[in-house]
Amino acid sequence: MRLYALYEEGVSDYMYSMWEEYQITCIPCGKSISLHVFHVERVSDYMYSMWEEYQITCIPCGKSIRLHVFHVGRVSDYMYSMWEEYQITCIPCGKSIRLHVFHVGRVSDYMYSMWKEYPITCIPCGKSIRLHVFHVGRVSYYMYSMWEEYQITCIPCGKSIRLHVFHVERVSDYMYSMWKEYQITCIPCGKSIRLHVFHVERVSDYMYSMWKEYQITCIPCGKSIRLHVFHVGSVSDYMYSMWEEYQIICIPCGKSIRLYVFHVERVSDYIHYSRKEYQIIPKSMWKEYNIIYNI
Predict the structure, then answer these.
(1) Nearest-CA neighbor of 203 among 242, 241, 165, 260?
(2) From the CB of residue 230, how many other CB atoms can be counted at a distance below 10 Å?
(3) Which of the residue ranges 35-44, 189-198, 201-210 has the most confident prediction, judged by mean pLDDT?
(4) Residue 139 per-residue DSSP state
(5) Can you tell me the distance from the alpha carbon of 230 to that of 241, in angstroms, rounded to the nearest whole number?
(6) CA 95, 96, 100, 103 torsion: positive or negative?
């Protein structure tokens, strides 16, 4: 049988170049069949971690066969709720059956159905409660656009509190799993402020596609500065390994400040396509890509 993998429309950075065939085996009859999956252009360093087998059942004959699909990091934990049906053929009986698979399409109707519980703290009563949020399996080439507030209710005290989460452009239904706070220093006033950024669970083998500038505001002095952060290429359960210092510029005073951000494991896999487009380069890339530190 042949199952055609998904083409994600509207993902300009993620260009699929060709198909690749993978052999899978039908358990009842032992015959080999081919599965067409995407070979991704510009992501040659993106190695999927392992295979996982999914059991499907042929409706006409009732026999079970196994379909090998990519298990990327912890991809088995994430499920998209928008389904699409693909026509496949059962080898033992030769009849056609339908397999429901995830349809990504244009990401505006992206909904995750697999929930995960994360403990948060209620501000009014100070107790820990659990918030059911989506566990992000894969965030493909999304542009973070703004903040959004979600109203939740503390179970112990019954009061409503607000949780700031990312609202992703074209992915209004996206909820990210957890937050982390990073401390930075405002050069104009010299005081420390906190920047809430997103912490993605299990983020290894990250390939960033480009940089994006985010406007942040220093709370003590009220001035705005710009922070260069990564535009996410593919966020598929990656694991951050250590810290790295990045140089940023405070717009009001023009001085350079340093921000400690995540340095990604296997940063040698980073591909920067044009040096002129970037103002911040990970230190670990300088030798591999002959980058001169001139910020």
Answers:
(1) 241
(2) 19
(3) 189-198
(4) E
(5) 16
(6) positive
Q: Which residues pair with 35 in a beta bridge?
A: 22
Identify the sign of the CA torsion 110, 134, 262, 207.
negative
**DSSP-assigned states of every residue in 188-207:** TT--EEEEEEEE-SSB-S-B
101: number of Cβ within 10 Å: 19
pLDDT, tens digit (0-9, with 9 covering 90-100), for 239-286: 222 334 444 445 455 555 444 443 333 222 232 222 222 233 344 433
Supply 66's token pair: 């196994």
Kindly report the pTM of this predicted structure.
0.20
pLDDT in tens, 121-158: 566 676 665 554 443 333 322 223 334 455 556 666 76
Can you tell me the distance from the alpha carbon of 37 to that of 196, in angstroms, rounded to the nearest whole number?
37
**Separation CA 111–CA 108 (nearest Å):** 9
Q: Which two tokens stand for residue 272?
A: 């920067």
In DSSP notation, 258-293 reads EEEEEEETTGGG---S-GGG-S---GGGHHHHT---
